[in-house]
Amino acid sequence: MGKFLAFVGGWLLEMVWPLIKKALVSLGLTLVTLSGIEIGIDQLKSALTSSTNSLPADILQLFLLAGGGICLNIIFAAINFRIAIWSTTRSTKLSWPKSSKS
Question: Which of 33, 40, 64, 96 could be bridged to 87 by S-S, CB 3.0 to 4.6 A?
Answer without folding.
Answer: 33
